[in-house]
Amino acid sequence: MVKLTAAATRSIPRIIIFALTLIYGFAGLFFRDPWKNEDAIGFGGMWTLFRGNSIDWIVPHLAGRDVSLGAPLPYWMGATLIKLFSQFIGAANAARLYSAICFFAAALAIWYATYLLGRRREVQPMALAVGGQPDMKSYGMTLADGALLIFLACVGLAQRAHETTPMMAQLMGISIVLYGTVRGLDKPWQGGLWTGLGIAIVALSSNLTLSLIVVTSTIIAVIASNAKLRFRWTLTSTVLGLIGFALWPIVWYLVDLPTEWRHIAEEGWRNSPEMRARPSIESLGFLSVNFWAYAWPVWPLAVISLAHWGRIKSIGAWRAPHLCIPLSLFIGSLIYVLFRLEANEHDLMIMIPSLSIIAAFSLPILKRSVISFIDWFALFSFTLIALAIWIIWLAKVTGFPETTAANITRLLPGFEGQFNWLAFIVALAITGVWLSVVRWRTSRAPKEIWRCLIISASGTTLMWVLLMTLWLPTINYAKTYRFVSARLAQVVPPGGGCIDTSNIGPAQLASFDYFTKLTLRDDPNCPWMLTHNQSEAQAYAQLNNKKLHLLWEDRRAADRDERLRLYEVIPE
């Protein structure tokens, strides 16, 4: 058990935590192109649906490539947002509203799940002999604020939470499952509705493996917990969850989807992204190297929480809902990542909601030395990062320091830095807020248990906003295919027929389809071939008795390894 006074559980002013969440969530969503790899692929699927027919909506894929992108919900949402808002803010910006919806829904679900767990009797602080201990509501709100700050402080989420990927819908779905399961402890009908909705979202945005793991983890959490859920929660969540699993296949048969496309959809649902039958060595290696930095400061706080609460037998230890429910979902998410063919940073997102809730319960028992370490580490780290961002921006705009400016020119040939008053003012304002937060934290000794998180969450927000204001043109120039697409369009003769794109990656195909009006398809009979692998192109020519005449060779300025080539295909 813990000892706390009411003063230690004063909540953060609502306007501050709302503003911090909104600024973090919206920064970086607008005024940029789809970025290379997952962001471009996700947007490409939405763009294809927006311009496509019923088959495109039923089986999401990239234009000209008959390979399913997986479950349809993210692409349905993105394409719908493009239809509603593209005429006002542009297609790419409208599609990224999908990411904002998923992020804010996940943040809200994490807050409320922690709030309900924090009000439970078994986690309440000890009653003080002279009184003055916090009431249940105040304690729950403080822990919920802490969970949200931990979620915002997670370093790895900064870029990934602002991209149009299916993992954003998965993040939202798992967060809602957590909230619904906790809500079901005192309101079975309502909790069952939310749990079922969360399972449906996961089923409609991920492959079958993750969907079944989430269901299994939830069942294990309910069985293991010492706070049993009622039949009404089980019935409601089961019915809605089954509807979520059945909805997509039902659509296949209602519209009489052609057999070929049904097989494509089934394969995408089973294996998009690709899974293995046993734990992947590549995924294990990726996780062991990258997880610790990605999930900082979430994982150390979660470890402290588990170590403390897991040994208190009077509350049921590991069977207590505030440990059992999120821990089961975390373990399930971890197993999923380990069975991925080759995991990446986007896959790690689904582990953060559960860890954030567990980590929040470390706040009442943190030692002063740990609090000081987290504070000063975040203070120095984010101050140095902010200083570096400002110095490099200054070099881009003014040419001073000369060495830094020369390095930028070497890394990004052709890029011309321009002064933007709006970006400069926003960056200056967020830096001023950061200095105010640092001054507040270092000039006094606040008693609130969330005090060690305010610098970390503010620092992550500072870093991301500075990057998305001062550095946005640079990052966009480095990650977009806009300029190389324009040069490609200039060399293809008007009405010259289709371009075979079977030898380029999905991000490149999605980008070229968006930035050009060329006819792109995976068809070896096209009179043109676009490739970034010369040996594959030559092997294709020999196999099909054709000659290739090189017409164009180019690359993105920031990518020295990629070399795009356009060939004219000439039958021998």
Structural summary, described in words:
This protein has three domains: 15-361, no CATH class; 369-478, no CATH class; 482-571, no CATH class. 63% of the residues lie in helices and 5% in strands. The chain contains 26 helices and five strands. The chain has a five-stranded mixed sheet with strand order 2-1-3-5-4, sandwiched between helices. The longest helix has 31 residues, at 368-398. It starts with 13 loop residues before the first helix and ends with a strand. This is Inner membrane transmembrane protein.
What number of structural domains do the residues give? 3
Provide the helix percentage.
55-70%
Write down how many β-strands occur, each being a DSSP E stretch of 2 or more residues.
5
The global form is: globular
How are strands sequenced across the largest beta sheet? 2-1-3-5-4
Uncertain spans, ≥5 residues at pLDDT below 50?
A: none
Cα distance, first to last residue? 82 Å
Mean pLDDT: 92
**Rg calc:** 26 Å
The number of helices is 26
Broad structural category:
mainly alpha
Largest sheet: 5 strands, mixed
Protein name: Inner membrane transmembrane protein
Keywords: Membrane, Transmembrane, Transmembrane helix
Short description:
The protein is 63% helix and 5% strand. It folds into 3 domains: 347 residues, no CATH class; 110 residues, no CATH class; 90 residues, no CATH class.
